[in-house]
Design a protein that fits this description.
Number of domains: 3
Shape: globular
Helix content: 40-55%
Number of strands: 13
Bound molecules: iron/sulfur cluster
Distance between the termini: 41 Å
């Protein structure tokens, strides 16, 4: 494996130790690695995928007792929400957070909810929360009749919400919300942005009451990094290429691309691209590099190099330390949530599955 050859001696040693410990622990140990993890970490996975799929994989894995989640905090929390009673979720670096999720703390969102529903009746506003959010925020949404959605099913979740209530309140990614709303024919004038740093979200009562969609002002810097200039440059450099981007990118970038969709969509685009073609991808660079090495019969290149430093915090050494600590994982690495938060977050997740 190309990337493994670039490991230092000590990293190679850690990798070998992890392989040996995995063998010893058998099915009771499950290592989950998100698509955006470094290749040397991904190479040690039992499952690789997106956050929701990984949480389900771990819950359903026969005999799994210790779940080591190589991803950011909200992902490890999702695994904790969905886990079976006898399972423990371990996060190798508790400081590996997600700035997008951090834009919407549950107490701030609760305050916004109170203010919005002071203007529009509670029964007329549907909260929708993106998977990339804390468990506490998912719980707040579950408590108020709303649902979780992923980047694969945001449009379906919007349609469901609009059938049930007049206004959709979407958190925390403004671009994903805007791209989805526009794709469903909602006009820009019907979309309001709630800026949590401003009094009343920076909106007047009239703006709140006339909006069809209210978007929380949050973004993923890994995806707002891409610009239409990058796309123009790629098209000049690779004539005839296909450009696909993630819907957390700004609307003008999504418009200028040939297609946009979730990580699963991007992986499928790479799989399906004809041999000899060029696919330019606007998402986290570790995924793009992995796809490029998996599909050597086609050219897969990054739209521009954009790395998630929070994902990058999980190193092979931290993974090895977490695995080596079993069966007594460090307390600060064990993910723990109150039963109340877990119960309400599950309601919001279950609603998504029923949509
Ligand atoms: S890529 Fe963006 S959304 Fe994903 S963990 Fe990094 S900052 Fe958060």
């Amino acid at each position: 494996m190309n990337m493994m050859q670039r490991l230092s001696d000590v990293e190679t040693q850690y990798s070998e130790e992890i392989v040996a410990m995995k063998k010893k622990r058998g099915s009771e140990l499950v290592i989950l690695t998100h698509h955006y993890q470094r290749q040397e970490v991904v190479s040690l996975n039992d499952f690789v995928g997106d956050s929701l799929q990984l949480a389900k994989n771990a819950r359903d894995a026969e005999g799994a007792k210790y779940i080591v989640f190589c991803g950011v905090r909200f992902m490890a929390e999702a695994a904790e929400v969905l886990r079976r009673k006898n399972q423990v979720v371990i996060h190798p670096d508790p400081m590996s957070g997600c700035p997008l999720a951090d834009y919407a703390p549950a107490d701030g969102a609760e305050m916004a909810w109170e203010e919005i529903t002071d203007v529009v009746d509670k029964d007329d506003v549907m909260p929708l929360v993106y998977m990339n959010s804390s468990a506490a925020l998912k719980a707040m949404v579950g408590r108020n009749g709303g649902s979780v959605c992923t980047s694969s099913n945001t449009a379906r979740a919007f349609q469901w919400a609009m059938k049930k209530r007049r206004v959709v309140f979407f958190l925390p990614d403004e671009n994903l919300g805007r791209n989805t709303a526009l794709s469903l024919g909602i006009s820009p004038e019907q979309i309001a942005v709630w800026d949590p740093t401003e009094d009343h979200g920076g909106l007047t009562r009239d703006q709140i009451s006339s909006a069809k969609v209210i978007l929380w002002k949050g973004y993923c810097h890994v995806h707002t990094h891409f610009s239409t200039k990058d796309i123009q440059r790629a098209r000049e450099k690779f004539p005839g290429c296909r450009v696909v981007v993630h819907p957390e990118c700004p609307p003008d970038v999504v418009d200028a691309s040939d297609g946009s969709g979730s990580t699963a969509y991007i992986v499928k685009q790479a799989e399906q691209a004809p041999a000899g073609s060029t696919l330019v991808v606007g998402t986290e660079v570790n995924l793009v590099s992995r796809l490029a090495s998996e599909y050597e019969d086609k050219k897969i290149v990054a739209l521009s190099r954009s790395l998630c430093p929070n994902m990058f915090r999980i190193s092979i050494r931290k993974l090895r330390d977490s695995v080596a600590s079993l069966p007594n994982p460090d307390k600060d690495k064990v993910v723990s949530l109150s039963d109340e938060v877990k119960g309400e977050a599950v309601i919001a997740l279950d609603r998504m599955l029923s949509i």
